[in-house]
Amino acid sequence: MRKYSLPIIMLAIFEAVAITLWLTKHNIFYLFNFSYIGISIALGVFLFIKNYKHARRVVQLLVGLYMLVYLGLISQENMQIEGFWYYLFTGVFEAATIHYAVAKIFGPLIFGRGWCGYACWTAMVLDFLPYKTPQEPRKKIGFIRYITFAASLIFVAALFLAKVGNIERIMFWAFIIGNVLYYVTGIILAYAFKDNRAFCKYICPITVFLKPMSYFALIRIKCDKDKCISCGKCKRVCPMDVDVTDNSRKRENGTECILCMECTKNCPKKAL
Ligand code: SF4
Ligand code: SF4
Ligand code: SF4
């Protein structure tokens, strides 16, 4: 039973959020929403424990498609960063603000960048591309994330300052156009840099929240130094260039870990 403690803990966390929001916001949608996400994630972790090799992809598709198609396209909620700014400026703790608080701001204190490995609908598509492990050294262009972050903030602030009407409709179209831009840029970068996750490493504005918060993550991969033979395989298979053999929080690219478990699966000594 002990080996199933992680999926049980994950499910318990999401159920606690689901029930709390259902009762405090008097909206049963939150119960269904967070229960669905919690069950999908717990199922993925369970399949991983059972050594099913596509476990992570199952969760990615279950959660990513739900958020993109149901919440984004059908319910017309902008769950991208522009939607977060929009709800923040209107002072409403709904949809995107709750999503950001749970998945991208406070959640990473517990599960790091699990969002990036198991739920993001942008990475859900990028992970189908051929460069699952980077074929080239990392570039020093991560500063671009701050530009895209500022651009998203300025865009929404300008709509409010200019008192533009029907911002909600603009937000829906911003969601569609933003996603198309993300996918096109992500695919071009993946092929240009021979790295599926190039968009995540250099462009994604959400990493401005994710990286500092995941520095303190409770759940993280650790290396048993007594078993490790320094073969370097874990670093070679890591899609995010993390030096997972260093147990300190200052490990190289430590805030990039998406908990994909490729390193643990490939370690010949089961040191991770
Ligand atoms: S870095 Fe951005 S695009 Fe990549 S998985 Fe995380 S949230 Fe998605
Ligand atoms: S793959 Fe395992 S044994 Fe090899 S360096 Fe990484 S942790 Fe050590
Ligand atoms: S391979 Fe290991 S260190 Fe790299 S992102 Fe995946 S879980 Fe994190």
Can you give a write-up of this model?
The protein starts with a helix and ends in a 6-residue tail after the last helix. The protein has 14 helices and no strands. 40% of the residues are buried. It has two domains: 162 residues, no CATH class; 53 residues, Alpha-Beta Plaits. By secondary structure, the protein is mainly α. The longest helix has 27 residues. The radius of gyration is 19 Å and the shape is globular. The site of one iron/sulfur cluster has 9 residues, from α8 and α11.
Report the major sheet: none
Shape: globular
Task: Evaluate the radius of gyration.
Answer: 19 Å
Low-confidence stretches: none
Number of domains: 2
**N-to-C span:** 21 Å
Instruction: Summarize the amount of helix as a percent range.
Output: 55-70%
How many separate helices?
14
Write the H/E string, N to C.
Answer: HHHHHHHHHHHHHH
Tell me, rounded to a whole number, the average pLDDT.
Answer: 93
| Hetero groups | iron/sulfur cluster
Strand content: under 5%
Structural class: mainly alpha
Briefly say what this structure is.
By secondary structure, the chain is mainly alpha-helical.
Quickly list its features.
single chain; 272 residues; mainly alpha; Alpha-Beta Plaits; 2 domains; 14 helices; 0% strand; binds iron/sulfur cluster
Question: Layout of SSEs?
Answer:
Elements (H helix, E strand, L loop, with lengths): L4 H21 L2 H22 L5 H20 L6 H10 L4 H11 L2 H4 L2 H5 L2 H6 L17 H18 L5 H27 L4 H5 L4 H8 L18 H5 L24 H5 L6
Helix pairs in contact: 1-2, 2-3, 4-5, 4-9
The chain binds iron/sulfur cluster (3 copies).
